[in-house]
Design goal:
single chain; 384 residues; Phosphorylase Kinase, domain 1; Transferase(Phosphotransferase), domain 1; 2 domains; Kinase-like_dom_sf; ATP-binding; Prot_kinase_dom
């Protein structure tokens, strides 16, 4: 039996999943929407480009269909935050146009219908392109602009106490060209692939909208025109914040404790990890061991101390001995950047990557940091 190319459609809600087994040309919501193509999938949902019948103004939309196991939380927790807290902010966020339930062999699925601009954009591929051209990562100016863009969103979210929880590479996307004529031309040039039937389920491969392109080596005058935004709102939280056991927080130290916590400062930690990955093409922390081993790696790379308040935590009490052979943050940056770039970049990252979350700078303070402000000034200059 061949394996599924993407989400495991045969696993049920009892397995913690239960994906919706959709197919091209299938209708949803009593015939209101027709599936045109698959745009992507993640741990808790799949996303489909759909056409709304009889809508001549905005015929194309995106349907995010949650797994059965995630659907109740999506309805009771996620939907109210997105509609009532995130949508009224100044964050570039398309919001939920419609929500409805669909039934499959696995059970009931919550569905969000959104403008195609929100969940269906081209993922940030410029890092891959840079690496294929024998560069470690993106130029510093491109990373500064990216961080500036993310901080604009985080600053607005944190004003209303919303924790994004997903500041990572997969949540950086470019807004595609969505004019109906452009979109239909793009779809005609790239029709859906053939559906495979695997174990009785229709397996459809993702085809993100990829009609917006940029160059990894664009000069700053072009980078300031990148229509880059932060998405990935599937794990947003409002107080009281609680770590989701299966969610990846980029090894934020507070989430690794025996008594784990998370909060707005966790977003800041994730931003620091993201910036390092964009610059170097590598993740800063690579340990996949126990939480104590991961905390030990963080301590050694950052050459930082464990907060006194954590010394009684069971994960901290079994920390491995310091490993002095581990390359520090400064050493890793110096391998890919000029000396002055490494010094300035490290100074910014040191404000994000602090083991004690209470000592990290806020998104608001980071937005005014000199390293970030360099990108903000360029944007103002080019748009003046």
């Amino acid at each position: 039996m061949p394996s599924f190319p993407e989400e495991p459609l045969n696993l049920s809600a009892a397995d913690g999943l239960g994906y919706f087994p959709a197919d091209i040309n299938q209708t949803l919501h009593g015939g209101k929407y027709t599936i045109v193509r698959k745009l992507g999938w993640g741990p808790r949902s799949s996303t489909w480009l759909v056409k709304r019948e009889g809508d001549e103004t905005e015929p194309y939309w995106a349907a995010q269909i949650f797994t059965v196991s995630a659907s109740k939380v999506a309805e009771t927790s996620l939907l109210p935050i997105l509609q009532n807290v995130v949508y009224p902010t100044d964050v570039l966020f398309a919001g939920i146009d419609d929500s409805f339930w669909e039934t499959s062999v696995h059970g009931e699925h919550m569905c969000f219908n959104t403008c195609i601009e929100y969940p269906c954009m081209l993922k940030l591929c410029v890092l891959r392109d840079a690496m294929s051209n024998r560069h470690a990562g993106l130029p510093v100016h491109a990373v500064q602009f990216t961080v500036y863009t993310v901080l604009q969103a985080l600053q607005e979210l944190h004003k209303v106490k919303v924790m994004h929880s997903g500041v990572k590479l997969d949540s950086l996307v470019f807004w595609p060209a969505t004019d109906e004529n452009e979109l239909e031309e793009h779809l005609a040039e790239r029709p859906p692939g053939k559906t495979e039937i695997i174990d009785g389920f229709p397996a459809v491969r993702s085809q993100p909208l990829a009609n917006y392109t940029v160059g990894w080596d664009d000069p700053m005058r072009d980078v300031t025109d990148w229509f880059l935004i932060l998405v990935g709102y599937g794990h947003v939280q409002v107080p009281p914040y609680a770590r989701e056991s299966e969610h990846d927080y980029s090894s934020a130290p507070e989430t690794l404790l025996g008594n784990p916590t998370c909060g707005l400062s966790t977003d800041v930690w994730m931003l620091g990890c993201l910036a390092f990955e964009l610059i170097t093409g590598k993740k800063l922390f690579t340990s996949t061991g126990t939480p104590s081993e991961r905390l030990g790696e963080i301590r050694d790379v950052l050459q930082d101390t464990i907060p006194d308040a954590w010394l009684g935590d069971p994960k901290v009490q079994v920390l491995p001995d310091p490993n002095t052979s581990v390359e520090s943050l400064e050493e890793r940056l110096s391998q890919v950047l000029r000396e002055y770039e490494a010094t300035e970049t490290c100074a910014f990252l040191r404000k994000c990557l602090v083991i004690d979350p209470a000592a990290r700078h806020s998104a608001r303070d980071l937005r005014d940091d000199d390293w970030v402000e360099a990108a903000a000034k360029c944007c103002s200059c080019y748009y003046a």
